[in-house]
Specification:
Blueprint lengths: L12 E2 L5 E6 L10 E7 L8 E2 L4 E8 L1 E6 L2 E6 L3 E4 L5 E4 L6 E8 L8 E2 L5
Antiparallel strand pairs: 1-2, 2-3, 3-10, 4-11, 5-8, 5-10, 6-7, 6-9
Length: 124
């Protein structure tokens, strides 16, 4: 069993696109290998860079705010309480078109690792 309590959360990782990622469970946080769990915060007007994973499925559960999600040629809007599954090789990008922070959980199966994230352009 692996547990993590709020005082033991790893530090936030802020990337240049504006999102803040905090891996709570995974290979680098707690030693879980079957899946990873991260809390992500995207401020208004910011977003993740388009990318894909060769091996991992990735699910998002929106906790607060509103997200604009592009997957390949499709676009969706997600609100608090809604979820999405992104399959391996699907190019995706989530951004925050709202006026409050977009907060969501991301689960990757198998656990996310840096070698499974690839920058990409969204197809037209």
């Amino acid at each position: 069993m692996i547990t993590i309590k709020k005082p033991d959360y790893p530090p936030l990782i802020h990337n240049l696109s504006g999102e803040s990622v905090q891996e709570l469970l995974g290979i680098q946080a707690g030693g879980a290998s079957s899946h990873s769990l991260a809390r992500i915060v995207i401020p208004p007007g910011k977003g993740a860079d388009p990318h894909f994973h060769k091996h991992s499925q990735e699910s998002y559960l929106i906790l607060a705010g509103r997200g604009a999600l592009h997957i390949n040629q499709s676009q969706f809007e997600l609100h608090a309480g809604e979820a999405v599954l992104i399959e391996p090789m699907e190019v995706h990008q989530i951004s925050n078109p709202g006026d409050e922070d977009l907060v969501f959980l991301a689960v990757c199966v198998p656990a996310w690792q840096p070698g499974d994230s690839f920058e990409a352009d969204l197809p037209n």
